[in-house]
Each structure stands twice: as structure tokens, then as C-alpha cells.
Design brief:
It is a single chain. With 217 residues, this protein is an alpha/beta fold. The chain has two domains: 1-30; 50-215, D-Maltodextrin-Binding Protein, domain 2 (3-Layer(aba) Sandwich), CATH 3.40.190. It is built from six helices and eight strands. 26% of the residues are buried.
């Protein structure tokens, strides 16, 4: 075996040890955060995770694929949620199997259902902590979102709406969502900025998502 190959493998070993130390430190701090949180605080914060992932990916110089970083941190984030709430449960619409599996990173439990009504029922009855639903089909369940039910869209990731009982967090890169209550079949209204209110009394706030494209400007 050449000296060059031996040296390179030694460097890999050194990096692996450093990574292990950093991962251990991160998980330790994550546990400290869990203990410092007030009772009832959400263990999963979609907006926070979205901004974190954006910050990480924006530091890449093109030599590393985004998917590698996304999957590495998805494991760390999912494990953190699991450590804070081992029975954390995802309910997802059929057809989102790949997205759901990758999101859970083998740490979080999930099940699938065939209707939006079932998803809303699971969230309403606290049988699930978070739900995944195609954003393009959001109008189907929009009338079940908002202050009246306490269920909101909290983020949009890969055209998937992430829905839960958390009130959306303001980030500075927000797109607020409303539904028009004057129609039997709700139309979805997107408005830049974080706002819980609309000038129209017919516009019902149903959530917000982080518009990361504006963060690039």
C-alpha cells in the first residue's frame, strides 16, 4: 500500500473522530434545550429547521451535493425530535411515501391515509403531531385550517405542506397564507410577509411558510 493512501486514510480517521465529537456535542446541547423548554413547547419547529437548512446549504461551494448535507442533518434533526418525544407521530397522505420516509430518517413513526379529512381528524384528536399534504391540493382541506380549529400550515418543503397545531413563526422570509371564506371551495391566497390579519374580513389566516428564495436576494 502506498504511503499516500495510508496518509489519506489516516486523515479520514481523524476527520471521523472529529465528526463524532461534534455530533455528540450537538446532541448533548439538543437535550439541554429540551430540558430548558417551558412545558408544552413544541418539539418540532418547521420554520427554524427551514432556516437552519438554508444557512447550511448556502455555505456549500458546489463540491458537495446538497442532498448529502440535507440527509445528514435530517438524521440529526429527526433524532433530536425523537429524543424529546419518542412517540412523535407523522400522518401523511398516500403518495408522499418517499418524502415521509426521508423526513423521518428511521427515527419518527409515520402512517398514511387516503383523505384530507382523515388527516385533519388525526391532528384534531392529537393522534398525530404533524401532517404532510400536497401543497398543490391544499384547497381541499383549507376550510379546516385556521384559528377556528387551531391547525395551521407551518412550512412548505418540496411542494409538501407541513401542517400542525403550532402557530407559524415569523422568520423575516415569510409567505402568509389565507383562504377566501366567501367561496364554498376555498381559494388559497399567498401574501408576502408575516401577517395574521388581512385587509379583507373574508380572508382567513391558515398559516405561513418560509420563502427561502427571498433569502438569497
Amino acid at each position: 500500500m502506498s504511503n499516500v493512501l495510508v496518509e489519506l486514510r489516516q486523515k479520514i480517521d481523524e476527520i471521523d473522530h472529529a465528526l463524532l465529537e461534534l455530533v455528540t456535542r450537538r446532541l448533548s446541547v439538543s437535550r439541554q434545550i429540551a430540558m430548558a423548554k417551558p412545558g408544552g413547547s413544541p418539539v418540532y419547529r418547521p420554520a427554524r429547521e427551514a432556516l437552519l437548512m438554508h444557512q447550511l446549504l448556502s455555505q456549500l461551494d458546489g463540491t458537495v451535493e446538497h442532498k448529502v448535507v440535507e440527509r445528514l442533518w435530517r438524521v440529526l434533526l429527526a433524532s433530536s425530535v425523537h429524543s424529546q418525544r419518542p412517540n412523535f407521530k407523522i400522518i401523511s397522505l398516500e403518495g408522499l411515501e418517499d418524502f415521509t420516509s426521508e423526513f423521518s430518517a428511521s427515527f419518527l413513526d409515520f402512517t398514511f391515509c387516503s383523505t384530507g379529512d382523515h388527516i385533519i381528524k388525526q391532528l384534531s384528536e392529537n393522534q398525530a403531531d404533524v401532517a404532510f399534504f400536497p401543497y398543490s391540493e391544499l384547497a381541499e382541506i383549507a376550510s379546516s385550517l385556521g384559528e377556528k380549529t387551531g391547525i395551521y400550515l407551518n412550512h412548505k418543503m418540496d411542494n409538501v405542506a407541513i401542517i400542525c397545531k403550532n402557530m407559524p413563526e415569523e422568520t423575516g422570509f415569510d409567505i402568509s397564507l389565507f383562504r377566501d371564506s366567501s367561496f364554498v371551495e376555498p381559494s388559497i391566497i399567498e401574501k408576502p410577509g408575516f401577517s395574521l390579519n388581512s385587509h379583507s374580513s373574508e380572508h382567513v389566516h391558515i398559516g405561513a411558510w418560509v420563502n427561502l428564495s427571498s433569502a438569497l436576494k
